[in-house]
Amino acid sequence: MGFSFLPVMEYLSRRAFHAAGLCPHTVTLPRDPGEGSGATTIHYWAPPGEPRLPPLLLIHGFGPMATWQWRLQVGPFSRRFHVVVPDLLCFGGSSPCPSSPPPSESAQAAALAALLDALPGLPATARVAVVGTSYGGFVAYSLARAAGPARVGPVVISNSDLLMTAEDDRAFLERAGGEWASAADLLMPLDARTARRLMELSFYRKQVTSMLPDFLIREGVQNLFSDKREEKIELMKAITVGTDGFQLTPLEQDVLLVWGDHDQIFPLDKAFAVKRCLGENVRVEVFKETAHVPQMEDPNRFNEVILDFLLASQKSSNQYDQ
C-alpha cells in the first residue's frame, strides 16, 4: 500500500472542525409536492444543540470539500458565531432529489434556506451571516437576495465573479494555456499535469502538494474529483450567472467583497465591476500576494477582516433595532 496525502489532509481538516466544536450532521429536507421519489439530503457541520451564538453560514466553492476550504476559519469564527458549514448539493454528503434537474445556484440557495429552517433551535427570526467563496459566492448572493435582510444579515463574497460571462470562461482557459476544452476539464482534474496547473492558477505561492510525484497527485485527484463527477459537470452547466436568467441587482445587506490581487480564475478588475453593480452598502478588501483562495493563503488576515466586518455589521444592526 503506497502513501497517499488525502488521508492526512482529511485528518487535519476534520481535527480542525472537531477542535472548533463542530460535529457532522445530515438532514433530509421536506419534499416539494412536484418532486418525484427520493429526497434532498444536506450534510453539514455545526455545533451540537441549540445555537448560543449568532449563526454564520460558510459556503464552499468548487474545490474538493468544504472541510478543506474552511479548515483555517472554523476555529476563530466559532469563538464568536454558531458556525454552520454545509456541503452544497452534488458535493460531499449532500444530494438533490434524484428526480430534480441539476441545481442552479438559486436552487442551492433554496436548499440552504431549507437547511436553516431545519437547524435545531434556530429561530425563524434569526438573521444569519453568510460567507461564500468562488462558486459559493454565487450561492451566497442568491440566498441573500431571495431571503432578504430579515433572514440573511451581512454577506461576504470572496473571489466570486457575479458578472461572469462565456467570454470570461474563454479568457480563463486562455490564461490556463489553451490546452483545455472546457472549464470543467480544468476545475475537475483527473491527471497530475492538470492538477498542477489548477494549483498554479488558484494559489499565488507554490504549494507543497504540487511538488509531489505524478503518481501521488494522480491518485489524489482521481479520488477527489471522480466522486459525483457527472453531476458536477451538469451543475456547472446549470449556473445562471452570465445568462439572461440572471440579473445582478443591489443587496440591502451590508456586503464585503474579498479578492486576491493575483487571482487568475476571476481577475481582480472584476471585483470593482461587481461592486459597482451591488450598490452603496459594499466595500472591497484586496488581499495582496494571494490568488483565488485568500482564506487559505492568508488566513490570519482573512479571519481578522471578516470577523471585524461581521461584528461591526452585527453591532450596527443591534443599535438600529433598539
TrEMBL record:
AB hydrolase-1 domain sequence ranges: 56-304
A Pfam match: Abhydrolase_6
Top-rank lineage group of the source organism: Eukaryota
Protein name: AB hydrolase-1 domain-containing protein
Organism: Triticum aestivum (Wheat)
